[in-house]
Fold:
Amino acid sequence: MSHVLEADRLTRVFAGRPAVNDVTLELNAAECLALFGPNGAGKTTLLRLFAGLLRPTSGSARVNGHPLRGDADARAHVGFISHQSMLYGALSVRENLELTARLYGLADRRAAAEQVMREMRVLDRANAPVRALSRGLQQRVSIARALVHSPRVLLLDEPYTGLDALGAAALTEILMRLRGDGATLVLVTHNINEGLAVASHAAVMHGGRLLRLERREALDSVSYAEEYRELVGGVR
Amino acid sequence: MRPGLLASALVVARKDLAIEFRTRTAFLAVLMFAILGVAIFYFAWDVTAVAAIDLAPGVLWVIFTFSGLLSLQRSFGVELADRAMDALLLSPIDREAIFLGKALANLIFVSGIQLLTIPSVGLLYNLPLGHALPILFAIALLAAVGLVAVGTLFSAMAANTRLAELLLPMLSLPFFVPVVYGAAQATSTLLAARPMAEAWPFLKLLIAFDLVFLTACTLAFPYTLEE
Structure:
């Protein structure tokens, strides 16, 4: 039986330089991988390969046994939060979310949009154009956009960036609930504590390679942070 | 249940038109460009050398070609800010639906410009449009389909380049030649009140161009999205 998320010797080269280099990993339902690494380590590229937004140079990335690029049905179960909001500034919060609901063919678009607006605490801004919102509120709407179709696989690229304490707490709560409901998550973050709070697995990426991949239970967050600094500081 | 090809295309088109309706900047700017273009041709015109009926088709189709290019320029620009295009690519709709939706929104946009520009050319050049107006709008629509199909594809290709404003006309204009030729000839026949049978070969050219390029551009579009 295939894993929910799998990378097999996944490699992506940009201008002769491997951004992701021979990465192999597997994740099952209700598992969450916290992925740490310095800037330029290849974390974002790895997520974009999983999301099907990039074509691998070699190897494969699969979700539920299918590469997302060519499989529209498989894409219906995946959510992606990126550095960019992926929102239309001229449209309101509600219009952006209902647009996403339409693209995913949800029957009750209004209810789905209202539920995620409530969860991300942006319901009071429902009719405001996105471009009129602060960076932090846009990030909350961006997260709501990724959740509106209740994805079974969620790829998160530094989702806590720009969030205040309230927004961060709401996000952590949602991620814990999604994991409890059996969703598979990949969380890219620079913050060890935030990552380990929801993770079942932790890994470090550096120079496009996955340097260590461990189960969360085996880790102590304080010593892990020290080991992480030594690891990325020592590898050149 | 995920939406089908046409339903997805309508969602994309509706979204693009809603964004344009909110901002209105592109439509008004392109309309202003078209009207100013018509006026400049008018002031450069030597009435003793060329009859209005001979000049007007050329003016009309030069203006439509360049205002069409301006319209198409913004088509993928709205997707670049905050990488909204990624959200479309991640959703379970076919890539072809994105193209068809964008092309439909562009067609409505370009047709809107044509709808307002044709009467202004008629007024300024004192053309006997009257009974010819519905047929002229039909020719304009046929030509717009071809211009929009090719232009939408090249707009997607040019959007991610540093010289998008230059690249789009360079790529598109050679492909626009058959459309402009066919539409201008059919318009001449119509305005000169010659039998429409004389215009039929040009209309067939426009129909064939639309069918071939709408199909080819729809199929080619997914390959423009490769990174």
